[in-house]
Amino acid sequence: MSLELFNLKGKVALVTGATHGLGMAMAMGLGKAGATVVINGNSSQEKIDNALKEYAVAGIEAKGYKFDVTNEADVKANIIKIETEVGPIDILVNNAGIIKRVPLEEMEVAEFEQVIKVDLVSPFIVSKSVVKGMIARKSGKIINICSMMSELGRSTVGAYAAAKGGLKMLTRNMATEWAKHNIQTNGIGPGYFATSQTAPIRVDGHPFNDFIVGRTPAGQWGDPSDLEGAAIFLGSKASDFVNGQVIYVDGGILATIGKPANED
Ligand code: GCO
Fold first, then answer.
1. In the predicted model, what is the mean pLDDT of the chain?
2. Cα(53)–Cα(81) distance, rounded to whole angstroms?
């Protein structure tokens, strides 16, 4: 089996929300496989510049673009800029996302809409801008970052679950409509990973922390680097006939009903 299938040399990969956490880990993986990495962020240019330093230390050739993934005009302008300054985008990873942990009956409509906008509408907006070039070139890879909440509910993250459930189906519909152009659209569903996003619920002694460690057959939180393999696979020739799938990288959470606390 030729490792050449996973070689991303000459490819340009855009990863949204890649200044930290899971986005950075997947971008690092694509870079290690040879891709030229383009990272997006929107909080500050300084955050992008600091992230680019981390990529450079890791020996990854990366470029940074600050734009708002929920703003179509901003996205369109920056995709044109990226494809002019770096090159045609071969791989798009829609990773940018937010979460608000609020019981549904207490959640403001504006909060609900914001989560849906960033986590579900922005993958549509960015993909719509990028796919035009992929259709013209008859080649492309789109990877949507889903979640356990694409399959499971959890108290306080209702808007997030609605968005991630919707993203799984958007992934399937993108595959349905774009596969004929030799574009593969798939998803990655991270389980529970040690990131800044999960820091509030991953505190020693926090009931959710112990619950997740017990609920995960692997018995631990995932390390962001555990996502590199799935990103490289879905970004490479190795997945040329894989379409509309979500690869859950979750230490086995979705495979099991779980076990009682006193069971080994
Ligand atoms: C939460 C977590 C999750 C994880 C991830 C699980 O509050 O339940 O933050 O949302 O981040 O999405 O797949």
1. 96
2. 21
